[in-house]
């Protein structure tokens, strides 16, 4: 619809997730009107990301150094490991301020149809961490925080099977149920069913 | 929340229009997983846009050459000029396939509070085009297609004042009224009022 680099830019932006043709056009024309230095900053960080982002050697989260800030923080509880699929899940849990242990990023979830088995995930690294005594502390809880969908549930089931026979280790799973601030009437059957089976005694 | 270039990328993406923190994060992690060549293509078009996009010397639309494809197309009607605010408005009207004339892109709308007067828009160029006889053809209609909002209406009023005394020229404005596929009940008062004053005889 447009000519030259403007259309090329709209096409490239339109390949990004969640950006439709209208948003791509809006962003492209915005970029036509900004200072060249603003575009330079964007291309510079894109180049850095392309040249490789580092991952923490302990937990697999994105990191600036060999160890991420969480794994390098001596105030974090070494006895608890929270297992998540992706680095963005770490960010989501950190925002809750509910967890003071450390993380383990699997790098995805089991999905045999896409060829993703335990070998493609950082499962071996997790078993090594759980087996090790770190600074005189044994890991005593693994909290499985994979997504509450088919792949995430399958991954959780698999991890429980791998971990359940380790003495002194409790393996837990994040609660499923009604989202806070939601409306019972609008909950899907699966969520409402989980909320029932997971009901807690109040008195 | 993240470390290093990933967070920098999220920050830069979050400055783009219509991209909130969640979308920025989603796009950044998408870019972590694509081929380096995909990122190279994006940075290459960004660099091209930064180094300057050309504008058609006739109509002011974005262009690959001195004249855009529409102005260079001899099958387009030279007698009609449709005046729009921005290049994206040209794209929107072209999609309707209702107009076979040529365009004039003002580069914005009058907005005295932001310091945008007639001098900041391509108004003089429009008057020159209307005054010229091109390839033996006089311009006989100027269709004003500025946005139906305060600035666009003010611009339309101003252009009508500049153009109305030119002999043999009709100046028209796109119809305002109820959007097609919409619901009368949900139309705002201004739109419904315009639909009334602009009502057409059916029989």
UniProtKB/TrEMBL annotation, chains A, B:
UniProt domain Toprim: residue ranges:
79-179
Q: What is this protein called?
A: Recombination protein RecR
Q: What protein family does this chain belong to? A: Belongs to the RecR family.
Gene3D superfamilies named among the record's database cross-references:
3.30.60.80, 3.40.1360.10, 6.10.250.240, RecR Domain 1
Under the heading PROSITE patterns, the entry gives: RECR (PS01300), TOPRIM (PS50880)
Q: Does the keyword DNA damage apply?
A: yes
Keyword Ligase included in the entry's annotation: no
Q: Which Pfam families match?
A: RecR_C, RecR_HhH, RecR_ZnF, Toprim_4
**Source organism per UniProt:** [Mycobacterium] nativiensis
Q: What does this protein do?
A: May play a role in DNA repair. It seems to be involved in an RecBC-independent recombinational process of DNA repair. It may act with RecF and RecO.
What InterPro entries would the database entry show? DNA_Rcmb_RecR (IPR000093), Hlx-hairpin-Hlx_DNA-bd_motif (IPR003583), Rcmb_RecR (IPR023627), Rcmb_RecR_Znf (IPR015967), TOPRIM_dom (IPR006171), TOPRIM_RecR (IPR034137)
Where do the zinc-finger regions (C4-type) map? 56-71
